[in-house]
Amino acid sequence: MTNTDWATKDFYQVLGVSKDASASDIKKAYRKLARESHPDSKPGDKAAEERFKAIAEAYDVVGDTAKRKEYDEQRAMFASGGYGPFGGTSAGGPDLSDLFGGGGGGNVGDLFGGLFGGGAQRPRGTRATRARRGADIEAETTISFTDAVEGVTVQLRLSSDAACADCRGTGARAGTVPRVCPDCEGTGMRAASVGGAFTLNETCPSCRGRGLVVDDPCPTCHGSGRGRSDKTVSARIPAGVKDGAKIRLRGKGAPGEGGGPAGDLFVVVHVQPHKLFGRKGDNLTLKVPIAFYEAVLGAEVKVPTLGGAPVTVRIPAGTPNGRTFRVRGKGVRKKDGNVGDLLVTVEVMVPAKLSEEARQAVEELRTAMAEGDLRSELFNSGSQR
User: Fold this and answer.
1) Fewer CB within 10 Å: C terminus or N terminus of the chain?
2) In sequence order, what are the beta bridge partners of 203?
3) How much of the chain, in percent, has pLDDT values that exceed 90?
């Protein structure tokens, strides 16, 4: 993307946020707009497709901290007239040597051959157009609790902005190339007088800021040079991933331009809760009900494990409600290869109803265990201060 693009496009307006919006607000706005205009939800709707492209382009810039800072600086410089075309001072008119690869009179085919990944041979002595890295893509996936603990490979269908496959991003019909705009001489900007000796750069109305004029538009992209890249990628979710974790897959993002590398794919993982197990760091948690008499007399209780055979937990006599027992090696696999533990917390169940026989037994137990008033310490003189 050239300085001209950044000077003439208000990406904040595209996303519907203010210039001082936080990164979180920008991401929320992008997700909302992307869902509303995604081509998959509106097949055949060209207007929605173009909106989706514009939204993706805007988020690629202002959604990236470094790009956003550079974008804001470029916009400020252009607004103040501090930049000439293509980021240089323009007292002597535009310098097209950078556009055509050196010498001021380069070959137009070299521009498109380097920028869009093929085409005309680059003449000896000229400079290839700088390769551009593809945009990063963010996707989301929801996996089960068990898959989060054990690891899983998921298939993700991705859509991203890319150069039109038919015209290689030139916007011109196959076999033709755009020509440099005669009005702005390829800069995409022109100077407009605002009174007195002051001038302000504005978008060239002839080429709409592209710096190029397409006489015979590509029938696929209608001259925009942009298309959509749809692909399915396999993403490995490592064992032990936590809910809300973001996994980076290098080179799985949008394709680059001019031979540049692909961007990265960031996968946000959502983990579904389990009906029995919970998680605490690298340990699994489990609540196990036990009877009153098991807590008093002690017992051996069989409990389930996640994806394995049940284990037996010994409950000592006199175990209080809420006590936690540790079963080693039955938790979540750690990054170092070790495995966390299973934390079993007992819940002493008090029956809501008793048979007459059971009630008499409890009465007898109360008589036999006459230990005095257990709550007498609550009302001693020290507690009244």
Assistant:
1) C
2) 189
3) 29
Residue 337 in any domain: the answer is yes
Residue 363 lies in a domain: yes
Question: How deeply is 348 buried, as exposed, middle or buried, from its count of CB atoms within 10 A (0-12, 13-18, 19+)?
Answer: middle
Parts of the chain with a pLDDT under 50: 1-3, 82-130
* Residue 242 belongs to some domain of the structure: no
pLDDT, tens only, 317-355: 999 999 999 999 999 988 888 999 999 999 999 888 889
CATH at residue 308? 2.60.260.20
In this prediction, residue 348 carries a pLDDT of 94
Tokens representing residue 144 in the block: 């089960």
Domain that holds residue 294: 277-372
* Number of domains, the chain: 1
| Residue 23 near residue 12, CB atoms below 8 Å | no
DSSP 330-352: -SPBPTTS-B--EEEEEEEEPPS
- Cβ-based burial of 331 (10 A; exposed 0-12, middle 13-18, buried ≥19): buried
